[in-house]
What does this fold into?
Amino acid sequence: MPTVSSEELAAAAGVNSAKLRKDFSYLGSYGTRGVGYDVEYLVYQISRELGLTQDWPVVIVGIGNLGAALANYGGFASRGFRVAALIDADPALAGKPVAGIPVRHSDDLEKIIQDNGVSIGVIATPAGAAQQVCDRLVAAGVTSILNFAPTVLSVPDGVDVRKVDLSIELQILAFHEQRKAGEEAAADGAVPATAARKQSAGKGPDGDMPAVMPA
Amino acid sequence: MPTVSSEELAAAAGVNSAKLRKDFSYLGSYGTRGVGYDVEYLVYQISRELGLTQDWPVVIVGIGNLGAALANYGGFASRGFRVAALIDADPALAGKPVAGIPVRHSDDLEKIIQDNGVSIGVIATPAGAAQQVCDRLVAAGVTSILNFAPTVLSVPDGVDVRKVDLSIELQILAFHEQRKAGEEAAADGAVPATAARKQSAGKGPDGDMPAVMPA
DNA sequence: ATGTCTTTGTGAACGCGTGCACAAAGATGG
DNA sequence: CCATCTTTGTGCACGCGTTCACAAAGACAT
Ligand SMILES: NC(=O)c1ccc[n+]([C@@H]2O[C@H](COP(=O)([O-])OP(=O)(O)OC[C@H]3O[C@@H](n4cnc5c(N)ncnc54)[C@H](O)[C@@H]3O)[C@@H](O)[C@H]2O)c1
Ligand SMILES: NC(=O)c1ccc[n+]([C@@H]2O[C@H](COP(=O)([O-])OP(=O)(O)OC[C@H]3O[C@@H](n4cnc5c(N)ncnc54)[C@H](O)[C@@H]3O)[C@@H](O)[C@H]2O)c1
It folds into this structure.
């Protein structure tokens, strides 16, 4: 029976082994003292807890450059997500297959959502259309939205929104880049050491950035 | 002179005003008591601190569906990022313009990086090529990488990597979705309340997920 | 069986980020 | 020039997540 110890997993993930064990303990006592965790069983338990054992139908709205790239992305299916439909407002696209799935016109949006029991929607429309599309998705029953348009969406309570913004990712990199550059060349009104948190040495997945930035 | 108070900004950003003031204080004392912050001056100071006042040349490697979508993305330029070059291994693409920029062959990768003083690279190649591309970028002098390929890149110390993974974003949404669903229907081996951190009520930009998930 | 050795699960301490609350600063009006 | 009012900047305390450290559990050998 293949097993892993919390120590091994922690080293691989670059975190503290105690934290890892404590995190796992919230899911139950799945380890064996003196041995470690049964890999297969552990993967199953975590998958179940994360909701990966169920099938999640998603719709992608806005099948342009980005939407098409997302539709073609194989990483979807491998984690239990199924593209239930591709939706676009452009009549010229309607019926044309993208990644093997025919594009549906956005007139049918509500029907598609309801017929497929979709609760997760992806927005890849131009920024100007995003809020409107969002409202329709929410009204039709979608309660989780992944937004690629550079807009802040407002949604009612109970609806989750995650925004993916390439330029913010680049800004975070640029921020660290700048800090690397001016590390020993620090001269003028430099930020006091307090603000220079732990220097993410290529490890920490989350950046250390000031928390707030006005639009 | 248009000004904003920390209270207004905090409300708009959905954070605590004291935290916002304290964050700003790390950059210096740019506010005026009894009045607030001079908007223009504040924006400049934050921009400078974040490195947005300089011009950052970036290269995109792998001009397929995703790479082309990224190249077309206008959010780049508006934040001080300039697409210095598009690079692909496919000879058929070489010379063809994408988003107005001719695609260069990856043979010239090192030269392009050095000629343009590029320190930020974007990887949008298939997963199999990502590490190899990464190694070449780093060897050529790139010290920040934005990775869209579903692979964990290993890089030397001093190089920052950020990974954008659509399926992880979806997983986070699905996780909350599952929790919403089973909220009052909680029955079997449910996670103890401790693990159910603050229910992000559509506000918190960062999700609350177990920190570690083995590959 | 008993002992040893490894690794889990977790109580307790630590450290840090967040938020409260207020004094100081400065604008504004009389 | 002084009083008042608003809003900043920040010391301090609280709370939460992280880490330490160890007892308990179980495997495995003798
Ligand atoms: N987050 C990122 O990193 C990132 C990267 C690239 C692009 N983007 C953004 O993603 C969005 C799409 O980018 P793109 O390059 O694919 O643009 P695009 O113009 O190629 O595609 C937009 C598509 O949306 C469709 N559309 C427009 N209004 C619609 C509506 N009301 N309902 C349904 N469909 C509608 C259009 O017909 C078009 O097919 C843009 O907002 C862009 O800024 C984000
Ligand atoms: N992170 C996400 O959310 C997300 C979404 C979609 C796709 N992806 C990933 O992004 C990557 C690209 O996706 P895509 O749909 O554009 O794929 P694609 O096949 O359309 O494009 C890949 C491109 O990379 C080029 N390429 C291959 N090897 C190369 C090399 N060694 N050097 C330079 N260029 C090379 C190919 O010629 C091709 O043009 C894939 O790894 C995919 O899994 C990620």
The first helix of chain A runs from residue 6 to 13. Residues 5-7, 18, 21-22, 24-25, 29, 31-37 of chain A lie near DNA strand C (CB under 10 Å from a C1'). The two ends of chain A are 53 Å apart (CA to CA). The CA atoms of residues 131 and 153 of chain A lie 6 Å apart.
